[in-house]
Design a protein that fits this description.
By secondary structure, the chain is mainly β. It has two domains: 8-47, no CATH class; 56-261 and 345-355, 4 Propeller (Hemopexin). It has helices spanning 8-15, 20-26, 31-37, 40-53; strands at 57-65, 70-76, 86-93, 101-106, 109-113, 118-122, 127-130, 142-154, 159-172, 176-188, 193-197, 204-205, 211-214, 217-224, 229-236, 242-246, 258-264, 267-273, 278-286, 295-305, 307-314, 317-322, 326-331, 337-343, 350-355. The strands form six sheets. Strands 12, 13, 14, 15 and 16 form a five-stranded antiparallel beta sheet that branches. It has a four-stranded antiparallel beta sheet with strand order 3-2-1-25, with no helix packed on it. Strand 8 and strand 9 (159-172) form a beta hairpin. Pfam families: F-box (PF00646), FBA_1 (PF07734). InterPro entries: F-box-assoc_dom_typ1, F-box-assoc_interact_dom, F-box-like_dom_sf, F-box_dom, SCF_F-box_component. This is F-box domain-containing protein.
Length: 362
């Protein structure tokens, strides 16, 4: 397409119809297109256009491949039940291991962490950024251990934030170490630095898929010290305010069950399950966001043979992981299980709803 005789706004409208992969190629066509596509205003317009037209949506799957000792991200069609659900492009994640978490996404950016190293990534454009390690002066004799990591976009300050919940411990002759306190630390992408905030939070716990970004808040599974049970700890990305949302009374730690927070029907779903030869999954929904009394049990999935944990709700299907690390899809309509030819190390599969973007982290 020759654009010499076309107004810039017309060229812009045409380019906004293209997927990100094509836009990256178009940057090499001519200087004017390169300048146009790399403008921040075009990046914002591309995000808004994709959201308005609900296109470029897919499933971003992260898994660890033991045979090659690396973590990769793959794009899947959101029509997971179709035979061509797998889009063959794989993105190798540098310096990764099988314990890597995938948080987000926000505007095409995901946060990856093994609770030691943290980095941001836009897989659409293969952009990675390793975050500097927090370097706070803790009192002598104390050391920190990451218990929870969160990630989100502050729409007011137009900044990306990473939240680190760290337990401080001190050496103890009898027990090896003794709990001291909990620190909350926030990384701002605009300043490329960490800062501490004054907040009192409970201990958070980790299971695969127990950390979730939803509705401008990030969520962790946590203790409920006031009621003696469990809660979902919520952090508002913009106001930086924590809230504890009590989980259903059926949750009594420890009860032998694992927990997962997923998004289902535009609400937070809590899945309770106990991995075994035949696993059942109880699905609870928080019908009113932030209201503990609105938790309601919706249905039970299973028992399913050798299916160990949920991964992601996709339309009327639930992606799940088998004991051997295989990805399977369970249809909520037909109640049938379909094996997909995708494998990863056990407990390494993560998936999020994803939309491509041109947002550069650096």
């Amino acid at each position: 397409m020759a654009s010499g005789n076309l107004p810039e706004d017309v060229v812009t409208e045409i380019l906004l119809m293209l997927p990100v992969k094509s836009l990256l190629r178009c940057k090499s066509i001519c200087k004017s297109w390169y300048t146009l596509i790399t403008k921040p205003s075009f990046t914002t317009a591309q995000l808004n256009c994709s959201a308005a037209l609900q296109r470029n949506y897919c499933i971003l799957l992260k898994r660890f491949l033991q045979e090659s000792n690396k973590s990769v991200m793959s794009f899947l069609s959101d029509e997971i039940s179709s035979d061509d659900h797998f889009l063959p492009t794989e993105i190798t994640i540098p310096h990764s291991n099988e314990f890597l978490q995938m948080l987000g996404p926000c505007n095409g950016i995901v946060c990856l962490t093994d609770h030691r190293d943290i980095f941001l990534c836009n897989p659409s454009i293969r952009d990675f950024k390793v975050l500097p390690a927090p370097s706070f002066n803790y009192p002598q004799g104390l050391f920190s251990r990451t218990m929870g990591v969160g990630f989100g976009f502050d729409s007011h300050s137009r900044d990306y934030k990473v939240i680190r919940i760290a337990e401080l411990h001190e050496d103890d002759e009898d027990w090896g170490y003794k709990f001291h306190s909990v620190n909350v630390e926030i990384y701002n992408l605009t300043t490329n630095s960490w800062r501490e905030i004054d907040a009192i939070v409970p201990c958070v716990w980790f299971f695969p898929c127990s950390e979730l970004l939803f509705n401008g808040h990030f969520h962790w599974w946590a203790d409920d010290e006031d009621h003696g049970g469990e809660s979902m700890l919520s952090f508002h990305i913009s106001t930086e305010v924590f809230q504890q949302i009590r989980l259903p009374d059926v949750c009594a730690f420890p009860d032998g069950n694992e927990r997962a927070f997923l998004v289902f029907n535009e609400a937070i779903a809590l899945l309770l399950f106990n991995p075994s030869e035949q696993t059942c999954f109880d699905v609870w929904l928080m019908t009113e966001y932030g209201i503990a009394d609105s938790w309601a049990k919706q249905f039970t999935i299973g028992p399913l043979i050798q299916v160990e944990r949920p991964v992601f709700f996709c339309k009327h299907e639930l992606l799940m992981e088998k004991a051997n690390g295989q990805l399977v899809s369970y249809s909520l309509k037909t109640q049938r299980l379909k094996e997909l030819q995708l494998y990863g190390a056990q407990k390494s599969l993560r998936a999020v709803a994803y939309s491509e973007s041109l947002v550069w982290i650096k």
